[in-house]
Amino acid sequence: MSAEAVQNPVNLAARHPERLRITEIFHSIQGEADAVGWPTVFVRLTGCPLRCVWCDTTYSFHGGQWRTIDEIVAEVARHGARHVCVTGGEPLSQKRCLILLQRLCDAGHEVSLETSGALDVSAVDPRVRKVVDLKAPASGELKRNRWSNIDHLRPHDQVKFVLADRADYEWARAVTAEHRLSDRCQVLFSPVHASLKPRELAEWILADHLPVRMQLQLHKLLWGDEPGH
Ligand code: SF4
After folding, report:
1. Does residue 64 have a pLDDT over 90?
2. Total-model pTM
């Protein structure tokens, strides 16, 4: 701690309000998960410790701007949407994300959190709808799955599998059964864009009578890969 902080810790704290590194804040249509279709404000935090081979938000790995949590909450409010999605990158790689989530809930928003499933979700505000990935083999990040997160899923949460091929599908089918995921929360299966044909995935799900919800990314149909949507 600096000499200044020792002498006057209260003033120093007042001049260093809690901040997060932010890649973008924008208003769009939620393209996936339970809130699909709702006008939503997205808060994209910078940084991710994973490197999924099919990642479509690599621009969020670096850069960004430091913003105070007060500024972020105020900017979200200016967009006038009830739904807010905190995403990344991996938003939980910045510890103060937990404070932001709490503040957004306190402000009366319906808040969702998109997380890689690699970091601990146990301290996330229970009002937040967590969308927790489980990384399938073709992502290249299978070993990063934090299986203890399954114990912290609530009925309003969702587990999301992004699937690149038949081997991924069979893995996800086995994991869903082994952990009885459909009894805990919604289970979402999505095809990797331009890698697995949506119709093929639909037919596999139907043939196996899986209790899962298939998803296509609505924002990709509307805007392609343009950042800011
Ligand atoms: S966890 Fe998400 S942001 Fe990070 S590399 Fe994987 S897909 Fe990209």
Report:
1. yes
2. 0.91
